[in-house]
Design goal:
Chain lengths: 160, 386
Amino acid sequence: MTDVPEEGQQRRTFFKIGMAAIGGLIGLAMAIPLVGFAISPAFRKASKKWVDLGIADLLKGSRYKKINYTFSAKDGWVETNKRRSVYVTDQGDGTFQVYSRVCSHLGCLVRWDEGKDQFFCPCHGAVFDSAGNVVAGPPPRPMDKLPVKVEDGILYVKES
Amino acid sequence: MNSRISAFLADRLPLKNVENHIKKPLPKHINWLFSLGSMAAFLLILQAVTGAFLAFYYSPSPDHAYDAVNYISKEVLFGGFVRGLHHWGASVLVIVVFLHLLRVVAYASYKPPREMTWVTGVLMLLIVLGFGFTGYLLPWDQKAYWATVVGVKIAGTAPVIGDFVAKVLRGGEEVGAVTLTRFYALHTIWLPWLAFGLIAVHLFFVRYYGSAGTPKNTPEDMRSGKPFYPDQLFEDAVAILILFIVLASMAIFVPVPLEELADPTDASYDPRPEWYFLFLFQLLKYFEGPLEVVGTFVIPTVGFVLLLFLPFLDRKEERTSLLKRPVALTVTCLSVVLIMLLTILGAIAPRLEPVPEQPPAAEQTAPSQETPEKAEEEAVFDFGLD
Ligand code: HEM
Ligand code: FES
């Protein structure tokens, strides 16, 4: 192969560069759309909406009352009923505090312990006080409180 | 750095042999028609890649499939492009494979010792069509549903085993959830493995026997053409780039159809298969009543078997250009013209005037009330032996 004439050598080099260029071009023209396609859900922002929890009067005097609610929302291409669980507390001044039961650590469901006046998470042993502050365990922040409003006597939360 | 890596690899792998092998000169007179095989291979890989990405969002269930496909087209970033590449890529692949076959016929490249290359090639053509048939159902729209209903019924007209084959294909008595999951499994798992396995064998034969070149080649010509690498591969790459640009433009500018959701009760729908099955669809219009099986089964099967065993039927070993083989030329031209004619006739055949639907009240509902009871009495498994 060493005694290939100069001109042949140049042709071969041109072919090799040409092939690499074509490969790179097609590769890039495919890689960008395909990566975008695959990671596309990460760019969708979740649309949050107000969900009706019940008649405010019936919840009067509630203390860490567990409420499971259902709302209809889009899950990918399906319209499904999503289920959520919260604790509702009447703050006495006509307003409500609604705690999400989703642990602020890694997402297990916390439980309210009436006797101890605390929330417990079964997963990694987190303890929150009645105001949702971390007392023990790994969670990085207090429990999430959902936005609340009462309108026409109905209690609404903004689902998380 | 680069040279240290190559030295490391060269110490451990027979790179020199590989290099010598791919630098072997090809026969002279290799033209662009010899790139059709590489173009088919490229398209098949492209189908595999785009398909693997589409599978991120697809859901093979009659309740979800249609919405999922719609979601891909409308809501996923580049969804229309990726689906377009896969959809139009399938059609282009069929064309390219067919042209590749014609070039092999034109240069009589299937003659000894390349019979097995030919046979694996024809099997691949069958697989490519299998991809088309199973993939057509997946969007679960009207055309998907009805083309599958009809397509499977056609398989069902085969003598003796037809009914059984139809039930196996459908996974039951009618096209439904079980059909969709099995078509999905065939389309995304079984056929790809088969296809890539066969390609490996096909390409092994191609390399092992070496390119047959054109019939023009004298024995001296056979080893004095340009080397496969980089010269021929570069030409293949250029052909592939042009193909890719055409296909990508189609994917960008031609929207992929999605009809209404499949409706098994819609009698006004006039089912049509994908265009590359139109010739078969048109063929059966010419055979009615007891002769129907000729159009649905006998001609396609005989045609396929003749194609599969062509190298063993055409026994003359000497390779000459198609123009100097009157019988082969006539048969080839007739087949191509006939297939094209039937395709065109199928395409322009007038669609049914939509028949106004009868009001639901007038519809016969009584028999459907009877069936559940009757069905209960029957055994769960019906081997169809009666
Ligand atoms: C997905 C389908 C297919 C792929 C990816 C494929 C790929 C290839 C490639 C890369 C080559 C070498 C380059 C060339 O001659 O074009 C080749 C050669 C060949 N193919 Fe295919 N092929 C396919 C289908 C077919 C079909 C349907 C047939 C015939 C019925 C066929 C018969 C042959 C023969 C006989 C050769 C050897 C030609 C020669 O040595 O000159 N192939 N194929
Ligand atoms: S998830 Fe609740 S403590 Fe870890």
